[in-house]
Amino acid sequence: MSISGGPSPVLVLEGVTVRRSSALLLDGVTCRVPAGACTMLVGPSGAGKSTLLRLLNRFEEPTAGAVSYQGRPLPAWDVLALRREVALVAQRPVVLTDRVLDELRIGRPDLDEDAAAALLGRLGLPSGAVGRATSGLSGGEAQRVCLARALAVEPHVLLVDEPTSALDAHATKAVERVIGELVADGMTVVVVSHDAAQVRRIADQVLVLEDGRLIASGTADRIASLQEGV
Ligand SMILES: Nc1ncnc2c1ncn2[C@@H]1O[C@H](COP(=O)(O)OP(=O)(O)OP(=O)(O)O)[C@@H](O)[C@H]1O
Question: Model pTM?
Answer without folding.
Answer: 0.93
